[in-house]
Records
---
Amino acid sequence: MSLSLKERFARQDAVKAIDRVPCGSPVAVRLTAAGEVRPVSAALALAKRHVPMLRAKRTIEAMLEKGKAFIEVPVVESLDALIAELKASGVMAQAQSLAPIDMKFVRARSGETQEQFALRYQIDLATLRNWEQGRFQPDQAARNFLAMIATNPHEVEAMVWADQAHGTDLAAAPANPPDQPRAN
């Protein structure tokens, strides 16, 4: 005896509504398994913060398969609350804020002028000025670079200038290294 589509859906339980947090800031999160993972509650903790349920599910599955996963959580009301909820689900979370960086503060801590700072870290001077004056915000890669400068300025300087000290000319490197296939 075959049930009609309407009858099959009628037999399903009601879908549980997700109580989403009303406001917060975006955060990039690195997830790793910490003991016995409860995937459903971990996915719900992410969905509660405006991550689409399918993306939350796939991220948790990727974490279980590969040992770690990364996701941008759009609305985090409290980093401590997110970390605690995920920990209760057997997931360790390491977060990095996606909030704008105060470029003027980072440079001022170095005691350098805009020109000196730009030269020291090989940043385009016009770009640095635009960041400081709020006309543009650094993208995620630039924010990571600036965060490294803020925490380890001497080490970053050494890395930036290491290629020049060793005589390596990165601009002269072939567009397609021999061991890498060309993209079509």
---
Amino acid sequence: MPPLAEEDMSVQQRDALAEFKRVRGYDARGPFIVLSRQPELLRRVRPIGDYLRLESPLPAAIRELVILVTAHRWSQEYEWRAHVAIAIQSGITCVTIDSLAAGCRPPGLDRAQGVAFDFGGELLDTGQVSDRVYEAARAEFGEAGIVELTVLIGYYTLLAMTLNVARTPASENVQSACPSAITGAKLGPACLDDRPFPGRDVLDDPTANDRDHRSSDSS
């Protein structure tokens, strides 16, 4: 789904794209070009991203780590390339990025990064998180942080699915201090003896769906 010619746009599409440029400061690109086919969705989806990128209390390094984990999971090269440079600026190392590109757990993650990696990887891998991973995330980020992480993963999954369906090509104009990371979403072989996203105990436990709601921070 390439960009629409202006003469082929409806008034609603032109207005939604103009609003996007006014808020973001640049023309719509990538997934937002696709979403412009349904301008009301573009209007509704963009503010979620604005919040997650600019207002979320999650540290930038945690956010970008989880975004790269999500892009890798869905083999989404546009999303991967768009966030490699941002990840480096936020403090994510080339070693970490190269490990993610290979489908491996990066060495040397700090505690918060390790918790976020496990949470994101397990949620994307199984559609759920085990009690162990949930409790580690709650101890590190609180319940509000768990919600932030979950919505962050959901939002970038939404964009990845949109890009994958539209077969949007990755940008060639990406500069990175980690050249090998630019094509990371092409995916190297996963680490065979170090499963990148361990923790399938929720799915393997037949009683998992019968458990009570997880207790609240306030309980």
---
Amino acid sequence: MRSCSMQPQAFSGRVPGVHRARLLPGLCAFAAVSAIATASHAFERQWHLGADLGWSAVSHKTSIDGQERIFGGYGAGGHLVYGLNDTFNAMLEVGVSGHPIYSNRPWMTVASGAAGVSYTLDILRWVPYAGLLVGGYHFSAVGHDKAETKLGFQLALGLDYAFNRSWAMGVQLRYHTFADDPFSAHYMTTFGRFEYRWGW
């Protein structure tokens, strides 16, 4: 490399081995930084398409006793992610969950769709991230409560593990809150995720 070439007189009066010993740590550091930058750049413009499955909980005021209660349940969904650059990803998340309210009542279902942005940190094969999303929610329970639609917000925290450039799996926790009460978490999902990646 031209930038690294030096004239012989630069080492005049010095012991060459000493200069090489002093230069070696700097060259190693430069090589490591270059390798990390190259690996991170590979995630830019990358697409992720995957499926989600796991546990969910919703806080809801029922018409039976008018009390706010937490109902656990199961959920599933899908996600689409696009790498805007080596740090930020665009996110699209859809999901549905079912929550048994009482043994002799129909399940309450929560369907949602949201879009947002996440910040990622690549650590070799492990990729932790955090994201913010906004979207819509639809609550329904036939024969029990009236269906309801709300605007909501999501805080997503996740950790992915890449088997290779094409396949990865991970876990994601999302806290959901709604525009009519934005400082309370009324809905939470914890999903295992499996995805296919392409377009480096």
